[in-house]
Amino acid sequence: NLADTPAPHYAMVGLAVELTPKAAADKITAQVPLLKDAALRTLSGLTMATLLTPAGQDGVRATLTDQAQGIFGKDSITKVLLTEVVVQ
To answer: Which residues pair with 74 in a beta bridge?
Structure first.
């Protein structure tokens, strides 16, 4: 659910994580629910108009990358990628 009011909008967003060579993929995989939770909190504060703009998507990538690096460590995560964005 996005932050649009009074008419609600919904988003489905696919994520991928680019790992550094030092990252332990099995450790990252086990903790992906933490990143999904962070993504839900971030996305639910956005409006449809923001999420559909290139600048809005760049902001989401940057925010999620910072959050992922906070969860997994900067030595494990290079960046978070958006693999799909569908808004209704």
So the answer is: none
Mean pLDDT of 27-34: 94
Q: Name the residue type at position 70.
A: G
State whether residue 31 is helix, strand or coil: coil
Coil, helix or strand at residue 15: strand
**Is the pTM of the predicted complex or chain greater than 0.70?**
yes
**Please, are residues 81 and 61 in contact by the beta-carbon 8 Å criterion?**
yes
State the DSSP code for 53.
S
CA nearest to 36, candidates 58, 20, 3, 13: 13
Tokens of 44: 């639910």
Which residue is it, tokens 């990628």? Answer: 81
- Torsion of the alpha carbons at 85, 57, 1 and 14, rounded to the nearest 10: 40
